[in-house]
Amino acid sequence: MATKIAYDLIPPDADALDPENVLVMMTGPLTGVAPPSSSRIDIVSLSPVTNLLGGSSAGGDFGAALKFAGYDGIVITGRSKEPTCIRIIDDEVTFHDAEACWEYDVYDTVDCVKKLGREDVQVACIGKAGANLVKTAGGISFSKRNLAARGGLGAVMGSKNLKAIAVAGGTKGGVKVRDTKRLMEVNFEIQKRIRESPAFKKYENWHANIALSLLKARRPYFGDYEEDYWEEAEEAVRNAKRFFEEMATLRPNSCFSCPLRCWAWVEYKDEEAPMVACQGTFPAILFILKIKDPELAWKVYLRLQREGMDIMGTAAVIAYASRLGLVKLGTEDILWLIDEIVNREGPGNVLAEGVKRASEHFGVPAVYVKGGMESWSSDVRPFRGVALAGAVSESGSISRAIHGFPASSYYTKPEKAKKVAREIVGDESAAEPTNYKGGKAKLVAYFENEHIIADSLGVCDTPMLSIPLELWAEAFTAATGIEMSPPEKLHFYAEKIRTLERMFNVRRGGVNREEDTLSPRLFESVIRSGPWKGGSNSTGRSSRG
Q: Is 75 left (phi over 0), alpha (psi -120 to 50) or beta?
């Protein structure tokens, strides 16, 4: 629905930061209805980073609160003359002056909005980066905790002079479903399966050794893939592990209706920030920015979180800036450059445009995926299925296919990875990270569909991938009364969504197979053998065919 609304309302020649762009916040049919992890909200718009369709998803409580207020979604058009906050309390919608908090960070904005009258409101807002139209790093933050970070959609919100949206509801009845009895039966079964799943056992107690697990599973990503390994990475991991286990205080927590505790409030020296274990954002700061001092890594993380910035995108931009001699990685200079980007001052004004535009400005090659989106936190060259996802994803992000993708865990759990590939596409060689043979393309498409299904249902993909698709199809049928049997129909509709996304981008002009690729740098760089699992001796130049 979000993509269709965007397709219908956004003119083909629109600019992402002009008033004719549309920002769509959409829940799913299961959001707030009861299935475990039914907390998600999807944000869709024209991305200022790629000038293509932009999509990002977030958990927490905002999506459920919107449903309780009686709405499936919010569509924001035009531009306010003055900085504005929207307040939605059931069927009462009011607009408030946000001039006083326009320069606030995310935390202060949430506190300010809650003073409007109800402490229980859930808040979607932007920090200073979004207000200053920082394209690559401006995300939309949800009540200090969850972030729809990818694609620069916070800059779209800022371009509309919209600082925050506050939502609360539930006084006029709950969310209506078609078959409550059947839905509860399915919910209890899903709950039981989740608690028995490896994902639940993995996140039962938020684990501080995520950095170590990420290091073992993938080659770390460095600025422009100039280096193959960082000799002090192991020390950085040990220091981070000690930080979480001995220095910081952790309060594990969950999103709405989810039994997993995959994120926690981390408190250190009277400051706190939420940290999601499954995304590896803190390890990205360690590895990409080469920070072995955990206190400095914490300062960087806290700064990015408070400003509502895409940690993956910002880290990639700063690492690129280090190649230009603008910043020294592993030092306090990183905090200075973050401020330069947030305030669009000095070199930060160029870097705020994203790594692709920065590379065009400075004339130094950079690494990015389709449309100019900054890559994920690991080197994609040894993971060709992940690279393929980055080349063809209509939203320009490889995150849609990387989670759960067997190639990502092949170097640590090869037998399990091969088993998953064999069950899905009938070819275990599809799990091998460095080949394109057999069912690799089909496997990439399958996991893209799985993530589209999760986003469209309004559930988190972490538990969703651990539970048979039949149960999610049954939950959909019980909630909506629309038959979704056999469950493969969900994949059919995911393909339709994917096609609509493609139509949006094709209509933008200039989107064709030649643009379904990665930055030239990724086809020219060499991988030297090193201590990282998965390093090959060399890649040479590869054909983009």
A: beta
- Neighbouring CB atoms inside 10 A of 226's CB total 12
Q: What residues contact 309, with CB distance under 8 A and at least 6 apart? A: 127, 129, 134, 137, 138, 139, 149, 338, 342
**Amino acid identity of 193?**
R
Q: Give dist(CA 432, CA 423) in Å, integer.
A: 15
Residue 320 has which token pair?
A: 């690129």
Residue 537 contacts by C-beta under 8 Å, 6 or more apart in sequence? 527, 528, 529
Look at the chain and count its residues.
545
Mean pLDDT per 10-residue interval, the chain, length 545 residues: 96 95 97 86 94 91 94 97 96 94 95 86 95 88 89 96 94 83 94 81 57 52 61 84 89 84 88 78 86 96 94 91 93 97 96 95 91 82 85 80 78 88 93 86 92 93 88 95 93 95 87 81 62 36 29
As given in the structure block, the two tokens for residue 376 are 């994920």
**What is the distance between the alpha carbons of residues 238 and 165, in angstroms, rounded to a whole number?**
40
Return d(Cα 477, Cα 132) in angstroms, integer: 43
| 512, containing H or E segment | none
DSSP 223-246: TTS--S--TTHHHHHHHHHHIIII
